[in-house]
Write a structure and sequence with these properties.
The complex is a heterodimer. Helices cover about 30% and strands about 5% of the residues of chain A. Chain A is mainly α. Chain A has a domain of about 40 residues: Histone, subunit A. Chain A has a two-stranded antiparallel ribbon with strand order 1-2. In chain A, helix 1 crosses helix 2. Chain A is flat. Chain A starts with a helix and ends in a 7-residue tail after the last strand. Chain B is an alpha/beta fold. Chain B has two domains: about 350 residues, Alpha-Beta Complex (Amidase signature (AS) enzymes); about 80 residues, no CATH class. The longest helix of chain B has 22 residues. Chain B is globular. The chains are: A mainly alpha, B alpha/beta. At the A-B interface, helix 1 and helix 2 of A face helix 9, helix 10, helix 11, helix 12 and helix 13 of B.
Chain lengths: ~100, ~475
């Protein structure tokens, strides 16, 4: 398989990554090489093999639905790029 | 003082021969002298360390101290440390002062250990040479033209050069064992779930596991005692008692059944590394172990499987770095999309972007079954191989890495060649098994690591097997002459 400039631009958009225009050919080449390596897997017979998502096949643990965390908004917002009145600020989304 | 074992340091502290403040200051001075050459630390916490040391001295005087109270430690900069920058070696988190402690940090703090600083690493733990760090590469203390391995390269270099007695690391595909091998250390990746991942910045959540980087199995056991245990804050933490890993170190290994997978001794393995590993196996035979040839037939699938699973999980985990609540934000974003794209584009380095894009593509509509689902099925096959093998044997042995430390810059232009540096370590993470690397000798002055893989929760046995070897050999006691 081979990924081209358009594929890389689409993937970068999906990943919300701005990438340098000049770097696109090298990303295309690297991603192509990586997926050619991955391509080996397609030759493996995996009929009836249960996918393994987690090493220990553990069940998700549940906890009592009780508030245990204190509100630490001020502490957490100290490290935020931009806040106002306890709210995180981003560029206007709704006109 | 800086060549002593943790037991020796503990004894000196408890008998009042040295104070934790003196010991801590000694390490801080060594870091100031040597860190420029190695770039092992990103952040040195002098004031905080001396404060912790004073508290430790008080506890020792009041006889309320534990074994490791007052002993300094370095943390990989992937563990959140409250009030201290936690960068993950990325521009994205260059300004991130963590508002909380990782559970591992909390536990070793409670044990009274002193945090010297935060060590360099590959950016977001993605790399095998420590060259993807935003803060520049780490140099191998044995030869500063070579890499220390990665991603826990700073922790490995710091312990090797005696800039910390012991350190924490994390291992997603070999990131504790490979640098341990390249730097002549004992590095243990425990069973998945043994140590809490809470506050350990996530790369690939089904593979990541923390562990100790130490100068001996005994030191590693002492630190593992503090790091391991159930944590309700990590939903994949395992509810299982933690044994005292030091009590079984001295057990006899007479009759131990060692499996040698033929796939770990095949093409690509440096012949001199192979010879060194074979000599180590002979030592085990002389200690009463028996050797059996085994096969792990799906070993060849490990690297391609990993390079679907790990990037897929990383693309999801790293989506939280969006320039909104913490971390890097671009200047003057024109809209929300621009804010996301440029903050991430500027904040992440090349390798991280490459892996995010690999994962995004593998998970994208129409490709999920062909890549992600297929990789998860192959992961099962790899895991089954191990379970099959453990029917007849106790531990698996082989090389940790195919070669000794390579030159800085040697593999940076070819990501695939870098990925293959982890060919013997990746399977263990996919299966969730514990693995350990110990010093086994030198080739042309560079360390060689022997890897020992155990069945689930068999850390005590791995440490016992490693300790037995270290009682019979002194490879682990070798230090690079310029840092003695």
């Amino acid at each position: 398989m081979s990924l081209d400039k358009k594929d890389v631009e689409k993937i970068a958009h999906l990943a919300r990554l701005a990438i340098d225009k000049q770097a696109i050919p090298s990303y295309a080449k690297d991603l192509t090489n990586i997926f050619n390596l991955v391509e080996q897997l397609s030759a493996v017979d995996t009929t009836d093999i249960t996918p393994m998502a987690h090493p220990l096949d553990a069940n998700q643990r549940l906890r009592v639905d009780k508030v245990t965390e204190a509100n630490q908004r001020e502490l957490f917002q100290e490290i935020a790029p931009k806040t106002e009145a306890g709210i995180y600020l981003v560029p206007q989304v709704i006109e | 003082m800086h060549t002593k074992t943790l037991y020796e340091l503990s004894k000196l502290l408890h008998e009042g021969d040295i104070s934790s403040v003196e010991l801590t200051q000694h390490y801080i001075d060594r870091i100031k002298t040597h860190n420029n050459q190695l770039n092992a630390y990103i952040t040195v916490c002098e004031d905080n360390a001396l404060k912790q040391a004073r508290d430790a001295d008080q506890k020792i005087q009041q006889k309320t101290a534990g074994k490791l109270t007052g002993i300094p430690i370095a943390h990989k900069d992937i563990f959140c440390t409250k009030g201290i920058r936690t960068s993950c070696a990325s521009k994205m988190l260059d300004n991130f002062i963590s508002p909380y402690n990782a559970t591992v940090v909390e536990k070793v703090n409670t044990a009274g250990m002193v945090t010297l600083g935060k060590t360099n690493m590959d950016e977001f733990a993605m790399g095998s040479s420590n060259e993807t760090s935003f803060y520049g590469p780490v140099k191998n203390p044995w030869d500063n033209t070579r890499v220390p391995g990665g991603s826990s390269g700073g922790s490995a270099a710091a312990v090797t050069a005696n800039l910390a007695p012991v350190a924490t690391g994390t291992d997603t595909g070999g990131s504790i064992r490979q640098p341990a091998s390249l730097c002549n250390l004992t590095g243990l990746k425990p069973t998945y779930g043994r140590i809490s991942r809470y506050g350990m910045i996530a790369f690939a959540s089904s593979l990541d596991q923390a562990g100790p980087l130490a100068r001996s199995a005994e030191d590693a056991a002492l630190l593992l005692n503090e790091m391991a245990g159930f944590d309700s804050l990590d939903s994949t933490s395992v509810e299982r008692d933690v044994p005292d890993y030091t009590t079984t170190l001295q057990d006899s290994i007479e009759g131990l059944k060692i499996g040698l997978p033929k796939e770990y001794f095949s093409e690509g393995l440096d012949p001199q590394v192979a010879a060194t590993i074979e000599a180590a196996i002979k030592t085990y035979e002389s200690l009463g172990a028996t050797i059996k040839d085994i096969t792990l037939p799906n070993t060849g699938l490990a690297v391609p499987t990993y390079y679907v699973v790990a990037p897929a999980e990383c693309s999801s985990n790293l989506s939280r770095m969006d320039g909104v609540r913490f971390g890097h934000r671009c200047d003057d974003p024109k809209d929300l999309l621009d804010l996301y794209q440029r903050s991430r584009g500027e904040g992440f380095g090349e390798e991280v972007k490459r892996r995010i894009m690999t994962g995004t593509y593998a998970l994208s509509s129409g490709y999920y079954d062909a890549y992600y689902l297929k990789a998860q099925q192959c992961r099962r096959l790899i895991s089954n191989d191990f379970q099959q093998a453990f029917n007849d044997i106790d531990v698996i042995m082989g090389p940790t890495t195919p070669t000794t430390a390579f030159k800085l810059g040697d593999k940076t232009d070819d990501p695939i060649s870098m990925y293959l540096a982890d060919i013997y370590t990746i399977s263990t993470n996919l299966a969730g098994l514990p693995g350990l690397s110990i010093p086994a000798g030198f080739v042309k002055g560079l360390p060689v690591g022997l890897q020992i893989i155990g069945n689930y929760f068999d850390e005590a046995r791995l440490l016992n097997v490693a300790h037995s070897y270290q009682q019979a050999t002194d490879w682990h006691k070798q230090s690079p002459p310029s840092f003695e």
